[in-house]
Amino acid sequence: MAESDQSIIKRYEDNPILSKKDVPYPVETVHNAGVVKHKGRYVMLFRSHLRNGRSIIGLAESDDGFHFNVGPEPFMTPASREPFATYEEFGVEDPRICPLGGEYIITYSAYSRHGARIALARTRDFQTVERVALITQTDYRNAVIFPERFDGYYARLDRPQSEMCPWSIWISYSPDLVHWGKSKVLIKPFAYHWDEMKIGPGATPIKTREGWLNIFHGVFKTMDGAIYRLGVALHALDDPSQVLGVADEWILQPEDPWEVIGYVHNVVFTCGAVAEDDGSIKIYWGGADTVMCVGTARIDDLIDVCLSRSRPAL
Ligand code: BMA
Fold first, then answer.
1. Which atom of ligand 1 is nearest to the CA of 47?
2. Does 221 reside within a domain?
3. I want to staple 230 with a disulfide (CB 3.0 to 4.6 A). Which of 1, 39, 127, 252 is the partner?
4. What are phi and psi of 97, to 5 degrees?
5. Atom of ligand 1 nearest to the CA of 286
């Protein structure tokens, strides 16, 4: 389906950029990838379903951010060492990558019979990876870490799951990336709106001169199932608990056939974006939990929709 010219995100004309046929080991999907620039190359950590329905994380690399080659082996499979083994029994999902202090912090969902927790790992080179800690109790997903510290503290956005309130975006702080607290709710779904069912952080926050861009997902429930779309918010540079604006409108919705139909229909879901020196940004998203796609936007346009066409955060 054609996009209107007013779309903030321009889809890459050769989407999808990665699918299961590009992976040299057996997988059924390629989606929900974190992406970062490392030594001038783009590194992507993507999620794949195995044929038993559980997920692993693969690695792909690219010179231009559009054409990716997948590594010969998976990057992360469920751990065999405790305490991670118990909590990764059902798989590892939806990785985010944060460049921090000369290394890369990877946060991902660890699934088990005990629910979904956030696990944190680190790598310097994407050759080896070291699991550090499980950083939440159960029923959390979508943790993104800010690539800077605030008054000496690391900060993350995440999404606890609650029966009493629609699932919302929270912030927490840590002195060491392991112990987290000072938690506070920042952005809630908005009633009878495209994100009224639930929202969650998406890409690792992007630093701009006006604030931190937080590209998140929002879900609307219809008679035909849920629709996952992307939205954007801006947080204050020196204090990310201050939300400067949440764009009223979504910035991306499922439109291409591989976003509308797939493993889960009607899903665009981001775990990563890369800011470029020319003021553009590459935003990566999983289409229908099946393939990886990319689009580009102007950072100034994303800032503008947050500030000039915003809705209440809470
Ligand atoms: C969410 C997560 C995502 C997935 C989305 C759509 O709850 O499981 O990984 O992309 O649902 O299925």
1. 9
2. yes
3. 252
4. -120, 130
5. 10
Residue 4 lies in a domain: no
CA–centroid distance, 93 to ligand 1, in Å, is 9
Identify which of 267, 268, 270, 284 to mutate to test ligand 1's pocket (most ligand atoms within 8 A of the CB): 267
* 3 lies in some domain: no
pTM of the entire predicted model: 0.97
Residue 185 lies in a domain: yes
Which atom belonging to ligand 1 lies closest to the Cα atom of 264? Answer: 12
How many domains is the chain partitioned into structurally?
Answer: 1
Task: List residues near ligand 1 (CB under 6 A).
Answer: 32, 93-94, 228, 264, 267, 269, 286, 289
Residue span of the structural domain in which 251 resides: 10-311
Q: Ligand 1 mean position to 106 CA, how many Å?
A: 18
**pLDDT by residue, tens only, the chain of 314 residues:** 445 567 999 999 999 999 999 999 999 999 999 999 999 999 999 999 999 999 999 999 999 999 999 999 999 999 999 999 999 999 999 999 999 999 999 999 999 999 999 999 999 999 999 999 999 999 999 999 999 999 999 999 999 999 999 999 999 999 999 999 999 999 999 999 999 999 999 999 999 999 999 999 999 999 999 999 999 999 999 999 999 999 999 999 999 999 999 999 999 999 999 999 999 999 999 999 999 999 999 999 999 999 999 999 99
